Amino acid sequence: MRMTDAMRAVFVELLVHGPLSRAEVARRLDLSPSALTKVAKPLLDAGYLREQSSDGQKGIGRPSQPLQVDASRSSFIGIKLTAEELFAVRVDLAATVHDRFSLPLPDHDVDTIVEQIAQAVRRLSEAGDVAGVGISLAGTATPGDPVVGNSPFLGWSHVALAKLVEDAVGVPTVLNNDVRALTAAQQWFGAGVGHSSFALVTVGAGIGCGLVVEDRVVTGRSGGTGLIGHLAIDDRGPLCELGHRGCARAFAASSAIRRSIATTLDRPELTFDDCLELARQGQPVARRVLDDAGRALGRVIATVANVIGPDLVILSGEAVHMYDVCADALQAALTRHTHWTSTPVRVTVKPFTFDEWARGAAVSALQHLLLHS
Ligand SMILES: [Zn+2]
């Protein structure tokens, strides 16, 4: 269905903030009641919106029949590519995950991966048509650009992945950097709702950052923004895999934390979660490494906050459960490195499941196709 700008505005307002009364939608979008009626009618007729039954409403009097998006009206598939696997989910319009699927990637040959993606899309489309496919990966990829600029872990450079997938599955396909895709999901369906400027900092295999400034996910030139993983923290620190001494990643990436503790204790069998448990128990080496990691993250968050002045910073990612072990060091560093004219930004810790990467990719497709087609 082709939406006018006014229809799109009403739909997005209800998708992100609904259900809302007609009066509230009209007020938020500066529409007259009759203009809203005219804009909402085709959306109601096509099943994208529905009137909430008054049963669920509190109070008495004239039923106000709030409007809401019918989340079941459309589905999107999100796919996250890692070096070893493809993770896929099918979501509804409210970004609720209804099905998931994963496949190992036998190699990084482009045709092979396109065929694996097509297989995932076919499998997840069995329950009904999908309106779009989103694909996210670590590297330079931007919604609206069908080409993956660079993906070091796949060994790809200038691969027209969106076009290849569209040709294979016949569904509009949108690419995005994985952290920016998560940021889009937080903006419309997560802790970012209601905040015009926020940052998402992820911690896991790397340190990532997505930025929303004045209601826009910032993509930058060639898709390079939020590249804070190698921010210099302390030049007496450990080395990262690129040879920087004491960058954020060398202190706070989960693999760096694990390696540092396992090597010092000569216990190569330790997992990352074992290391967190040792720190919780007060084991001195683990404690020191997690304190250093917390300090590095606090400094990263302060730096991001000093640069963009966000309403809040959302901390998430595969290793975000380390927060409870390093929160004191993180908050102390955040206070210390926040510019003296500001108060430290509020940090919201968002628990993470691996599905969220693929869900973010689906939201990227939803967001891009809704706003730009
Ligand atoms: Zn580095």
TrEMBL record:
A Pfam family annotated for this UniProt entry: ROK
InterPro entries from the UniProt entry: ArsR-like_HTH, ATPase_NBD, ROK, ROK_cs, WH-like_DNA-bd_sf, WH_DNA-bd_sf
Gene Ontology molecular-function annotations: kinase activity
Keyword Transferase in record: yes
Keywords: Kinase, Transferase
UniProt similarity note: Belongs to the ROK (NagC/XylR) family.
Protein name as catalogued: Putative NBD/HSP70 family sugar kinase
Organism: Thermocatellispora tengchongensis
